Amino acid sequence: MHKLLLKTLAAVGTAVAVAVLIKKNDEHKEEVEVEDENEINFINILNDDEEEETETEEVDEDGSMFSVEINELKKIYPSLSFTFIQDVLSRNDELNEEFPDDTLIEITHASMFSNDDAKNAFIESCKMQGYRCEEDESGTVRSIRKMFTESGAILSEIYSIANKTCMLDGDYLGQIIEK
After folding, report:
1. Is 156 left (phi over 0), alpha (psi -120 to 50) or beta?
2. What is the pLDDT of residues 35-50, one digit of tens each?
3. 113-147 burial, b for 16+ CB within 10 Å, e for fewer?
4. How do residues 114-140 score in pLDDT, each as one tens digit?
5. Cα 124–129–134 angle (5° rounding)?
6. Do the Cβ atoms of 82 and 70 come closer than 8 Å?
7. Alpha-carbon distance values, 141 to 109, 110, 138 (Å)
8. Cross-strand partners of 171
9. What are the tens digits of pLDDT across the range 50-82?
10. 142: helix, coil or strand?
11. Number of neighbours of residue 62 by Cβ within 10 angstroms
């Protein structure tokens, strides 16, 4: 039963990742514009001793500073910050290399809640999705699950639990992944 649930959740996570990538490619195709032949284009040519200046901007509320892929993930996981999504996404290649497809892993998420009702709701929700939950003396809730990896499944797992934590006004403290 648990194996079927784990495979189903992994398949859903992969489907979400694939959908995001397909949508990203479609939007990129729409962004290509036909240039007007009378339009004037300026090219910035730098001397050898000049360096191109890069501007640092504050993050807009709508996330316009981030890639299309990150903005799409933000729509799926609205309680997560753009920076968190980007940081986790930047680990994708590393995670796929360390945990290739069909590797059995145990992932332990750590979350903290200041409200007991929210903590209890989180624990119940996780248990319904097949997680084993433990609470330590400091009040940190660990949601633990074994799963077989697929491309994008670990990211979906992290985003899902972190989003659930944030939706309940908790703090997502991180995760440990072991073979």
Report:
1. alpha
2. 444 444 444 444 455 4
3. beeeebbebbbebbeeebbebeeeeeeebbbebeb
4. 999 999 999 999 999 999 999 999 999
5. 50
6. yes
7. 8, 6, 9
8. 112
9. 444 333 334 555 546 889 999 999 999 999 999
10. strand
11. 10
Q: Which two tokens stand for residue 44?
A: 């910035």
What's the full length of the chain, in residues? 179
| Residues contacting 168, CB < 8 A, separation 6+ | 113, 115, 118, 119, 121, 122
Tokens of 140: 């940190």
Q: What type of residue is 155?
A: L
Q: Evaluate if pTM is beyond 0.70.
A: no
H helices of the chain, in order, are 2-31, 68-76, 82-89, 92-98, 116-128, 153-167
Residue 30 has pLDDT above 80, yes or no: no
